[in-house]
Design brief:
Helix content: 25-40%
Strand order of the largest sheet: 2-3-8-5-6
Shape: rod-shaped
Largest sheet: 5 strands, antiparallel
Number of helices: 3
Strand content: 25-35%
Distance between the termini: 65 Å
Low-confidence stretches: 85-108
Structural class: alpha+beta
Number of strands: 10
Order of helices and strands: EEEEEEEEHHEEH
Length: 211
């Protein structure tokens, strides 16, 4: 019913697919040579039960855990799973989408032994909810690592406004009895220009070094 492809290795066909139960199947293969991608596909001529998807799990040597990688479904009958030792997991937002994610390798390397890929026919709503939960957890971890930049103080903003005005008006200054005088119209022109820039780019004053 399902086929499996590992780059540079022979295709694993249903002839070697183990039937665990009427809804559970498994492929097993050596962990070496090391691999980075797995392709699972529904063999042409086969159909999934209505409302069901094929959830794909993987178990590495030295672990008892089966990690959920993703699914294939009626509207997406094949999927590519990216497996590496980065320790991060990117989970798709929709259960029937093509999957490109990372799965943890124990101890950051490929252990000798047998890898088991389990395929389980399950309600698509349940698996989609599991994938959504995994994605939310992944997003939360990413958000926690985001560096929050504090906005500049009111004093710094005021200094930048004054600097902006000075740079613009300096070229219009003229002498009058030993004093530099800036025409009122020049100040009005600066204010209009300043307002336009704030409308177009409200955060330009918050960027350090922007005058």
């Amino acid at each position: 019913m399902f086929g499996l492809i590992l780059p540079s290795r022979p295709v694993l066909t249903p002839a070697v697919l183990q039937t665990i139960s009427p809804t559970q199947y498994a492929y097993s293969f050596p962990s070496s040579p090391r691999f980075s991608h797995i392709v699972i596909f529904l063999v042409p001529g086969n159909e999934l039960p209505t409302g069901a998807c094929a959830a794909v799990y993987i178990q590495f040597p030295g672990t008892a855990e089966f990690k959920l990688l993703g699914v294939i479904a009626t509207d997406k009958q094949s999927a590519i799973f990216r497996v590496n030792d980065s320790g991060s997991t990117n989970t798709p937002a929709h259960g029937s989408a093509e999957v490109d994610m990372d799965a943890d390798l124990p101890n950051g390397d490929s252990l000798p032994g047998t890898v088991i890929v389990g395929i389980s026919l399950e309600p698509i709503e349940i698996v989609s909810a599991q994938l959504a939960t995994m994605k939310a957890a992944s997003d939360a971890n990413s958000t926690a690592l985001t560096i929050v930049r504090r906005p500049p103080s009111t004093k710094v903003l005021a200094q930048r406004i004054i600097k902006n005005a000075f740079n613009f008006l300096a070229s219009f200054a003229g002498g009058d009895g030993g004093h530099e005088v800036v025409p009122l119209k020049s100040f009005q022109d600066w204010w209009k220009k300043f307002e336009r820039r704030v409308e177009i780019d409200p955060g330009f004053l918050e960027r350090e070094g922007d005058g």
